[in-house]
Amino acid sequence: MDVFFNSSASSEMIETAVDGVPDEEVLNDLGAVWDYIYVALASLWLIVGIPGNLMVIISCIVFKEMHTIPMTLATNLAVSDALVASANVATTYLTILYDKAILITNSSLCTFTSILCGLGCVCSMASICNIAINR
User: Fold this and answer.
1) 46-77 burial code (b ≥16 CB/10 A, e <16)
2) Domain range summary for the chain, segments of one domain joined by +
3) What per-residue confidence (pLDDT) applies to 23?
4) Which residues pair with 18 in a beta bridge?
5) Cα(108)–Cα(102) distance, rounded to whole angstroms?
6) Helices (H), 1-106
């Protein structure tokens, strides 16, 4: 644990361990740090992923030169990537906000998110395969 966290929390965890079991309060503090890191990475994915995919989609719709089969496949890839990004980031925020119990107590949200992510991943793989075949 000291390799990843060279902070007072990790040294406190070693000092307050009783019979090799870390103190629960220290573990909760480390969990909060990971939650902040996870939310920051999800926000970065949202800030970079959604506008980038929207630019690909809009450019393929607006410009007539882009109405080709390879660009249609790239647009399909951008749509599926935006779908996965938005579903994952929304679920990440809800999971962190409701202390990871939202997916356990609300099975319909879990099912809906998994369907969206699964559909997006299958569409992405199909688009990538079609792009490879088209080349």
Assistant:
1) beebeeebeebbeebeeeeeeeeeeeebbbbb
2) 8-134
3) 57
4) 21
5) 10
6) 8-15, 24-62, 69-97, 102-105
Q: Which of 45, 40, 134 is nearest to 84 (CA)?
A: 45
Residue ranges of the chain with per-residue pLDDT less than 70:
1-30
Per-residue confidence (pLDDT) for residue 79, from 0 to 100? 92
SS3 track for 76-122: HHHHHHHHHHHHHHHHHHHHHHCCCCHHHHCHHHHHHHHHHHHHHHH
Kindly state the tokens that stand for 108: 């319909």
pLDDT in tens, 77-110: 999 998 888 888 888 888 877 777 777 787 888 8
